[in-house]
Structure formats: structure tokens, C-alpha cells
Amino acid sequence: MTLEAAKTDTIKPFRAKPEAAPVAIHAVEDATLEFAAESAPPTPRRGTLPKLAAPVLGGLLVLAGVGAGVWQYGRAIAGAASGSLRVESDPQGAEVRIDDRLRGTTPVSLSLPTGTYTLTVQQGANVKRFPVEISSGEGKAYHISWAEPAAAGGQVPTGTLSVTSDAAGSVVSIDGIERGRTPLTVPEMAVGRHEVVVRTAATTYRRSVQVEAGSTVSLVLSGPAAPAPWGWISLEAPFAIQVLEAGSVVGTSDTDRIMLPPGEHQLELVSEPFGFRQSTTVRVQSERGAALEVTVPRVAMNINALPWAEVSIDGVSIGETPLADVMQSIGDHELVFRHPQLGEKRQVTRVTLREGSRVSVDMRSR
């Protein structure tokens, strides 16, 4: 191979070619005579190198080693693995964080090194968080849609919190700030979870309350002056659930323990965003815990793509579009659409009990 051809070949580090086997360099009589001809020394004896040929050949070998090192370094830099991530939301303007670091607002396109990250998208009180894996040379796109759009005019949606207790005049603190005494009504509370502490002369009550947009949440606290040691309940669910007793919120699934006095309790499990409501009975023992079982309903999904695509939900392949009556539990699910020529699209879809879920994407659009 000529020197020019060799140069041309070494500037293509992006092609996946097997490494060529190292070429052994041998000192032969013809090469020795070629170096000797330049300075015209006496003809050396067969099997030996002239005095000047040995250091010259050694220098060439050093230069070749340095050149190979530079070439390998260039390959490492050129082959730095990265991929792209695009995040969109409806409405736009949601904050996008990668591993809790703010990277912009939707719509946003990012270039990231390969690896696994935690993607957080937040629009007011609405937050979605899930892992994202970036592969070399691959582009991923997420479109986030919220169950409730932002209020018109840029106003933040609010609700109302009402707190009452048997002992009137008990001090009420919300999220660490004293707000007044029972009975207390707090309007224009930000939508989301709030920590409520009510202090009576006999005891202190702590409750976690979920405030929903445009609605009033009532927290009623009652108990004996010297209550027996309480027990607790716990529950796990793929989405946030409020736990109500006699119409009052006693806790949410976001907390590890929901404290309750000993005895039998008729509870209602509610998640308004998903249209979920379930009744259950639990017996709480003093200073002991009880686990609540949550039955998550499944609904039918209809999925389509243009012109067509292979579909997976939460990492499980379900086939090629069009797909009808795909049963999925209510909650947020990640759908991945793949087409051999048009690439891949990802979409987070919320499945609720209010209406059937229909998902359709156009693989031809970018």
C-alpha cells in the first residue's frame, strides 16, 4: 500500500473494522543497502547492519509508535459516545431536569453522553419522573401531556383546605407555617400534597393532605383526651392515592405510614386524576402496622401509528399497529414506537377510568 493510501485509510475511525494485526518489521539486506546508498559507506557484510542504519531504523520505529498513539487517541475522541434527547409537553414551558439539574424548558433538545439518567418534567404541581437510557448515536423523544391543562391567564390552579377538631382553638400549622386555629378554612391553597399539624392540649396530630384544583378538602380530627398508642397502615400503588375515612383525608400513599387509632376502620381509596375509587375495611392494632391491598383496574387501549410501528409498553413488546383492546392498568405508561426506516418515538400516556385510551403517532413527522 502506498503512503497516500495509508493516510487515507487512517482517517476513517468511525467505521467498525477489525483491528489489523501488527506488522513485524525485519531488517533485510535490500533495506540496509538502501540506507547505505545515501551516505555511500562500504558495503556491509551479509546479516549485519551498518553503523548509521541501526539508529535511523530505531528512530523510524519510535516515530511510527508515536504516530500510532496519536491515531488511537484521535479515534477515541472521534468515537466519544453520545445521543440526543428531545422533550416536549402540552402545554409548553415545563421545566426539564436531568439528574435533578435544570436543563431548560419544553420544547428542548439535548445532547447527552451515553448512560442512564433520571428525567424530571414539572409543570406547576404536575411532576413526572422516569429513567431514560441514552445510547450512542440514538435520538429519543418524549411528549408529556398533563391530565389538567394550566389555567387560563397563567393563573396557578388552587383548592381549599378545611381543618376542624373536637378541641376548638387547636393550633394549625401547614407545611411548617402556623396558619391559625380550628375551625380553620384556608382558601387558594396550591394544588399538591401538604403536611398539616394540629396541636391540642392533649396530643399532636400530623396528617398529609392532597389538595386538588377547584375542590375543598376537609380534615376532621377527633379523639380521646388520652389516646391509646396508635397503629398504622401502608399501601403501595402506581399512582398517588388519598385515604379517606368518613369523608376526611387521613393520609396518602406517598407516606410510608398512615397513623390511625386502634380498631376497625372503613376507608376509601381515591385518586381523582385517574377516576379511581375503592372501599376497604382494615383493623388497626396498637403500635402495629397493617398493609392495604390496592386492586388497580385495567382498561382497554387502542394504539395506532402511521404508516405502522412495533409497539412496547413499559418495556414489554405487544406487537405491531394497529392494536385494539390492549388491556393495561390505569396509571402513566411509556409507549415506544419503532419503525425500521422511520426510527423510534416515545410517548408517556395516562390511562384513566374516565374514558377509553386512544394513542396514535405519525412516525413520518419529526
β-strand percent reads over 45%
Main beta sheet: strand number and arrangement?
4 strands, antiparallel
The average pLDDT value, as a whole number, equals: 75
Terminus-to-terminus distance: 45 Å
What global shape is seen? elongated
Spatial extent as radius of gyration: 34 Å
Helix content: 10-25%
How would you characterize the overall build of this protein?
With 366 residues, the protein is mostly beta strands. It has 4 domains: 3-78, no CATH class; 82-146, Immunoglobulin-like, CATH 2.60.40; 153-292, no CATH class; 298-362. 12% of the residues lie in helices and 50% in strands. It contains 3 helices and 28 strands. The strands form 8 sheets. The protein has a 4-stranded antiparallel beta sheet, with no helix packed on it. A 4-stranded antiparallel beta sheet has the order 10-9-12-13, with no helix packed on it. It has a 4-stranded antiparallel beta sheet with strand order 17-16-19-20, with no helix packed on it. A hairpin with a 2-residue loop joins strand 2 and strand 3. The longest helix has 26 residues, at 53-78. It starts with a helix and ends with a strand. Mean pLDDT is 75; it is low at 1-41, 70-79 and 148-152.
Write the layout of secondary structure elements.
Blueprint: H1 3-10, H2 29-39, H3 53-78, E1 82-90, E2 95-98, E3 101-105, E4 108-113, E5 115-123, E6 126-134, E7 139-145, E8 158-165, E9 171-174, E10 177-181, E11 184-190, E12 192-199, E13 204-211, E14 216-221, E15 231-235, E16 242-245, E17 248-252, E18 258-260, E19 263-271, E20 276-284, E21 289-292, E22 298-306, E23 310-313, E24 316-320, E25 323-329, E26 331-339, E27 343-351, E28 357-362
Parallel strand pairs: 1-7, 8-14, 15-21, 22-28
Antiparallel strand pairs: 1-4, 2-3, 2-5, 5-6, 8-11, 9-10, 9-12, 12-13, 15-18, 16-17, 16-19, 19-20, 22-25, 23-24, 23-26, 26-27
